[in-house]
## 1
Amino acid sequence: MPSVELTRRQFSFLAAAAFAAPPPPTVLVHEHVLVNFKRADYDANVVFTKVKPKLDAIAKLGCKRFQDCTPNFIGRDPKLLRRLADATGIEIWTNTGLYAARNHEYLPDYVQTETPEQLAARWTAEYRNGVHGMKPRFIKIGVNRGPLGALDKKIVKAAALCTKDTGLTIASHTGNGIAAMEQIAIVTEAKAPAAKFVWVHADGEKDHSFHKKAAEAGAWVEFDHIGPAKPALDWHLECVRFMDTNKLLHRTLISQDAGYYKPGEPDGGSFKDYDPIYTKFAPLLSPAQHKTLLQENPYAAFGK
Ligand SMILES: [Zn+2]
């Protein structure tokens, strides 16, 4: 906080938030209901009961859409997401794609032998036919730190091909700036637009020059570990200000990577709530930044 006193701008923003109803509709582009890294059994009713009040809390704060980024083979559960969407009134999105990060531990065997074209066809089929009654609305992939290995490159190429077939945007869990730039190159070499690529976890790269380069190449740069406490708040605010200063806010996304129920841990393990982006971070933004980051950019990046 630069000063104890509120600036006029902050005051009018807070006053509007306090007195005007309802809050502006917003989108959280990267969150999780459940992630099953342990591949443990779980009771969907228990998860539902645990997560529903967390979603109710952000519905009250204006969350209209919640993009669930849990990939296939790590706990993607469209049936559970549908139930939560119906119960909370929040539009919840699921995804197609594969997660090659964590050294390929969560990749199915067929990835070794299939071509990028074959993998893309699987994902396009999921988009066209739906998964347990829910149509995936974006492609979620994950890669390891750069320089990228062959399997990582294959996944990215598949995502680029799937984008060309479906128009879906790619959100890629990315280890560092080198990996981000390599992926943007693969996407554009496949003749898919850079604007269909989202560099997920860009906050993990401390060198702002990568953020600038990726956004100038036309890709989206997503700072997505906002939390309730100071180090994360300060760093994400600095990232937003850097992008704003460089006139790249129109290529910037923010979110929290929050949640999530962890099967195999007592009571689903520790849960990072979804509301700090509204209660702690949004008040630090100017009204223009708020509008761009939480109201406009998610639609520009992922569609309506
Ligand atoms: Zn995530």
Note: The first strand starts at residue 26 and ends at 31.
## 2
Amino acid sequence: MAVFAVDKDFYGIDLFEEGKPERSSAYLIRASEPILVETGSARSHQTLVEGLRELGMAPEDVRHVVITHVHLDHAGGVGQMMEAAPKALLHCHPRAARHMIDPSRLEEGARAVYGEQMEAMFGVLKPVPESRVIIQEDGSVLDVGDRQLIFYDTPGHAKHHACILDSQTRGLFSGDTVGIRYAPAYTGWDFVYGFPTTSPSDFDPEVMLKSLDRLEALDPTRIYHTHFGVTEPASEAFRFSRRGIQAIQRIMPMLSPESTLEEVEAALKGAIQKDLAALGHADWDVSPLTLDIILDSQGILVYLQRQAAGKL
Ligand SMILES: [Zn+2]
């Protein structure tokens, strides 16, 4: 299933990120001015273009590209997409814009997290001309006539993170702020599992909880996850996100800024196993979440170090 229907003239495209199904997606809204939400990594560009074609669209038809934040699995392919869609404008968070115009610092940061694997995993970053980048402040609106997308500044996963409410379906594009919806096709489990993503380097549990409160107060009907699919009712995704943050807050007193990454990974893995058991899934092996456990542990450790240094 490369393409899936979400609503009227509204589709998800599986990007097969990491070569795996139902890991990451982009969304296409066939509005009067077609809108693409998220591009995935540069490595997914071809898959994205094929998805658009499956929906009867050429990349040139896209008029608006929207990203939730600059992390490469969400926006690494923006440069390629903007080249392929010469009429499109890019809409992003105020702190995201400069990284799209000049991706050198973004690339450096990603290399620090992913090392030599970075290019193989995500491909090459291309800059976007400044004249095509629209900064969307908190509360600002992209109005395409038949619908409006409203941008909200939602830190907690990243300081450059926006969540976007679609006026027509009252669904929320949550990026990495309202947890990851782990689909069975990705995990191999026979149930959907939800847990927050705390990857480096801005994760802050208190700030994330505040963003969740603020987003839930908007009373969205559904959550459009980048990872992966749709949660309806939206309250379910808020619930699993809060439950996961609380599980992480419970392991934090056992850890310190001097903890090794292995210690954090073991604690986080234990917290997830406990969470799964509490949900009645004690028998499942958590190894499908290994990559996220490694990244999330880095984010937790960075948080503990920043907290100790008084740099939150
Ligand atoms: Zn992500």
Note: The mean pLDDT is 96.
